[in-house]
Amino acid sequence: MQKAKNLDAADPLAPLRAAFFIPDGMIYFDGNSLGAMPKAALGIVSEATRQEWATDLITSWNKAGWFELPTAYGDRLAPVIGASAGEVVVCDSTSINLYKALFAGLSLRPQRHVIVAEKSSFPTDLYMVEGALKARPDLEIRLVEDLLGAIDESVAVVLVNHVDYRSGKVAAVEAITARAHEIGAVVIWDLCHSAGIMPVGLNAAGADLAIGCTYKYLNGGPGAPAFVYCAAKHLPHVSQPLSGWWGHAQPFAFDTGFTPDAGIRKFLCGTQPILSFRALAAGLDIITGLDMAQVRAKSQSLTALFIELVEAQVPALALASPKDAGQRGSQVSFSHPNAYPIVQALIERGVVGDFRMPNVLRFGFSPLYLSHMDLVRAVEILADIMEKGTWAAPRFQAGGAVT
Amino acid sequence: MQKAKNLDAADPLAPLRAAFFIPDGMIYFDGNSLGAMPKAALGIVSEATRQEWATDLITSWNKAGWFELPTAYGDRLAPVIGASAGEVVVCDSTSINLYKALFAGLSLRPQRHVIVAEKSSFPTDLYMVEGALKARPDLEIRLVEDLLGAIDESVAVVLVNHVDYRSGKVAAVEAITARAHEIGAVVIWDLCHSAGIMPVGLNAAGADLAIGCTYKYLNGGPGAPAFVYCAAKHLPHVSQPLSGWWGHAQPFAFDTGFTPDAGIRKFLCGTQPILSFRALAAGLDIITGLDMAQVRAKSQSLTALFIELVEAQVPALALASPKDAGQRGSQVSFSHPNAYPIVQALIERGVVGDFRMPNVLRFGFSPLYLSHMDLVRAVEILADIMEKGTWAAPRFQAGGAVT
After folding, report:
1. Could you tell me the pTM of the whole model?
2. Which terminus of chain A has a lower count of CB atoms within 10 Å, N or C?
3. B272 at A interface, C-beta within 8 A
């Protein structure tokens, strides 16, 4: 308790909490699923609706820079993930961007036909790989346990999840990228569970392609547009098949034939959802002002304290995340045969985490709005639920899980 | 003048104008590019931000039905385009949905490899066809002047724009569909410029697939999510490669392999932009209460009067749209060598239409918020600009066009 107070007192990020709307009485451990709302988002969205749409109408395409939002926001996001301006574009959904990235990777290695991914990838990643195979039946998909060992001369594209969505384990993306490059393969990093909570060194690692979402730790709002990164060195050479008019070199010339933009805009396809874009601005305003090393330090401090408190007070839960903070993203998972009702009982008490099949309690830690004292309170409630067996009540048994 | 007043007095849709926010002094002829804002949208978006995102957070996936919005909104849109519940899903962008529809059509005709489209299609449609070819080099693309004459036994998929974006000409979609079916081909209707301004008879014509946007005549907001239609008879048999987790039969089971939803959800891919979805609700509320025959009658009355007024008062403009109202969508285009500066001079006076390469002035007519008297005033201003040569001022010469 005193330790948590001391950690909070010394926390340079503590003032950021005031920039977020956190419902009264809620301790929110689902920032890794849907980030909390930056207070500024409400006004920005309302203004975009009232002024940009209702009042300025089509003139907003120029006046409000709607057409440039994907690259403008991409440029702002770039330093957060270790990229340069002109290498990131915000658009569409993560799944759709992965499809683009897969074909972009294949376009760089036209003589190769193999895509390698981990079996434990976030499932939609695997579904999109399957989709690529449906469009191009000559591809071969290899789902493996160990990426490093699976990269051989036949491999065109390697897909790696930077942080595992279930366990929170950090993958050796740099080593995997180095190994892939040795053998001439291209790597796609999925940053969904790392962007915004730890330094991501795309350019430092000589990365090729990356994708990720903005509605988790970047606090962009529900279903906020996702992003694609392509290293500058590859931009002149890559292509992707979702070649809509926003990716055209001269979108307003209305040419019959497609000529891709020379830069990162070639990853754009159709018209983007402007109101959802605007909501993201508030989250970007916050994250782009931060030192990601400081964000990472607080994230590790939070997850370490949480593990310590749970292990001391709720020994029935088995840690399912790496014990070593260096190997851990900003989430902590525990397994328990009754994970589902326990999560439901916690939610009823205002402690919002989530359940993952088959038996995982998953807690996400946003260093931007959680305090160490939040964790003390949450673990007290968890311990109380376990001690009293509250979770066994019938009302917590039924129903499914939501991402 | 009196004629216009009489037409307005007899207009059963006149009261709808009060449901829209139209900026003071503006006569808006760009509802075919970005529809005006329904007044209710502002409150709906603000509530979605404040209550659904900020307060209810992840519980909104169930509580606010976020996960079901694509099909819920699709079911509401269905009758507007002559479809049944379960055949329409709202999601992603028009370009992306066209990619899905192209592959869905190809999946129904696995032995055929030819896609036929009109050279005059909206360019992004052609770019997406090119994209499909990039993913599947065995395809053959035929761009033609005359669709009806181009459909032979080798054709898998025919793509037709229901209303031409430049001229406003209505295509013979029923005849094209009948011809395609005789010869075993599948047809995709692009409804971007017809949905919301005229009856669209998808099921009556035995249509196969359709796509369209909601930000034009459906007033869904800037970059509002688009839609896909697939006839119920095809749903068990089609597949498409953008197979993300929202299209999975059991999205929350987190299976490693993809099993498509049995119904229209198989056209979904990734997480949808919820705030942009919510904005669309207001537009859907308005359109779904209307008799589309009445909407079409007013649209034809508006475009006929506009042509009559322009031909009488501004003979220098040459009509570039069909004279026959039955052949015309809800837009009227004129050609003039100085189309671009004339459009700019009109905008300065509050008459907002748009320019299309190379020499077209395009006026779109939303029957939901334009009156006949609006047209009288607009043509007076147009005549004044032409008479005085205002458009020749240097400030109107530079710059490009926006959709």
Report:
1. 0.96
2. N
3. yes
